[in-house]
Amino acid sequence: SIPLGFFSGIGNASGNGILIKGSNYLEALNTIDTVVFDKTGTLTYGKLAVAAITPENDLEANALLSIAKRIEAHSNHPIAKAILSAGETAHPQFNSSEMGFVDLSERYEELSGMGIKATLDGKTYLAGTEKLLKTHQIDFTPLVSPANTVVYIAADGLYLGSITLEDHIKDEARAVIEILKKAHKKTVMLTGDQIAVASAVANALHLDDYHAELMPADKYKIVNQLIEKGHQVAFVGDGINDAPVLAGATLGLSMGDLGSDAAIEASDIVIMKDQLTSILDAFDIAAQTKKIVT
Ligand code: ADP
Ligand code: MG
Question: Where in the cell is it found (predicted)?
Answer without folding.
Answer: Cell membrane
